[in-house]
Amino acid sequence: MSKKLINNPRHVVREMLEGVVDGSDELALLEQANVVLQADLPEPDKRPVAIISGGGSGHEPAHAGYVGKGMLTAAVAGDVFTSPSTDAVLHAIRACAGPAGAVLVVKNYTGDRLNFGLAAELAQTEGIPVEIVVVADDVSLHQTVSEDRRRGIAGTVLIHKIAGGAAAAGKSLAEIADIARKAAGDLGSMGVALGACTLPGADKPGFTLADDEIELGLGIHGEKGVERRKIGTANELAETILKTIIKDRKIGKGDKVALLVNGLGGTSSMELAIMTRHAIACLREQKMDVQRVWTGTLLSALDMPGCSLSVLKLDDTRTRLLDDATTARAWPGSGTIAAKRREVKDPAGSSDDITYPDRGPLADKIKNTGRAVAKKLKAEEPHLTDLDTKAGDGDLGASLERGADAILELPHKAWATPATALIATGNALRKAIAGSSGPFYANALIRAGRHLQDVASPAPAQWAEAFEIAANAIAELGGAKEGDRTMLDALLPAAKAFNEAAAKDKSGKEAWQAACDAARTGADKTAEMSPELGRASYLGDRAVGVPDGGAVAVAIWMQEIADNL
């Protein structure tokens, strides 16, 4: 069974609504119906037109998250992915609509249309004027059904805001309905799922996808899409979706548009931002005027990984209503954007602190060895990631791979002497690796390079001195010591072995291999150590049994140097 933070699957909707209302001083909950409404509404004869929406639960923050001044007056919640009952909708209308009436914003699903529609009929027999606005923005069905049978999906949130803004501005029932219907007609949305969602209490998701498959053109109830295909890049998916929307909604050059990038519940903000980036670029490439953009999880499908894109044609009225203030907590705020990406030039100056002398006698050997080390680290990325995932935060492999790429991009002149190679490599790693590995390696390499500043061909003892200085620099910067289960458990024994072998007049290769052997032994021993510093320390004894990834990485690159001597 999929793990959920719930109590009883039968009570999830009511408990969810109680949590929403308990976390606000502006909302109230009907006692006998799952309806969230604005608290402290005026007396009925003083109320503006009420804007009511809703549907099945599982779409949070919709719909209760959009209840607030300037947006929805009330939201009606059905069971998960199930339309609310006619009586629940009628309760909402009675609770918040006055003589000015109510607009019901309904997503185009059969159950929603039936229950909201019947509730509207019953309310009108009681003397409450009601208009229904149906949103059918899912363009993925353009080859499958007529427009009036398309589903209503995430773009509905924009209609909530437009209708709510119009009501707050004091417009009449007929005016609000007309504004909202016309906006819905100029709105297109389409989604993509990378996997299925799992309903509360269910033991498996609604469908399964292979690792390289996606569902394109899906609704918001955990169902399959219109097409199953191989996954593409974020850019490719954005282009595919927007091409369909633009063609279907007849959006052309010069049109002003709003863009909504909506997460389906299981998608990170990072991924949504990447989709936003290219969606804006695609619209601008086709000479459309992107005036408003919102990104986030605005209407979800429980925990489904994926997203949808919505594009709405704008005019002055729609733009103003979208911009108007609202107290609805889930509305993401201003969607204003700059006409183009703003980039600021880096401040002048450099902290590289290096000049490049003429090529020394070891230039080619140092360059070949450095590049071999970089390639080895790239090849070992999966192994290092696995180690760091088991006993850390999982970023070591990717961090060192970025560092390796930076080493491979160093200019030929950087390898001129041992000092330039060490300092240039340190600076490259400092820039490429933002985590702890970057500063540690940078500090170590730069100090070692400065120690060898005037030495064109260091003797084994001089290399050993530089290596010890580098290891001590890491200890000083990080505050760790041998036995704390860090990279120092490989570096410090290696430095000691290197110095001892060099003092015995061993050849450079022999002395370095002794250091490599000590590093490997030290790295292996970390598997039995309880971590004292670093991310692994948060795991305590749970990290025991897995060697420290940083120490293993040291042993790997040291041995690669030995193999190239």
Automatic annotation (TrEMBL):
It holds the Pfam family Dak1. Keywords: ATP-binding, Kinase, Nucleotide-binding, Transferase. SUPFAM superfamilies: DAK1/DegV-like (SSF82549), DhaL-like (SSF101473). One of its GO terms (biological process) is glycerol catabolic process. Residues 364-563 form the DhaL domain. Residues 8-331 form the DhaK domain. One of its GO terms (cellular component) is cytosol. It comes from the Bacteria. SMART domains: Dak2. NCBIfam families: PRK14479.1. This is Dihydroxyacetone kinase. The lineage of its organism: Bacteria, Pseudomonadati, Pseudomonadota, Alphaproteobacteria, Rhodospirillales.
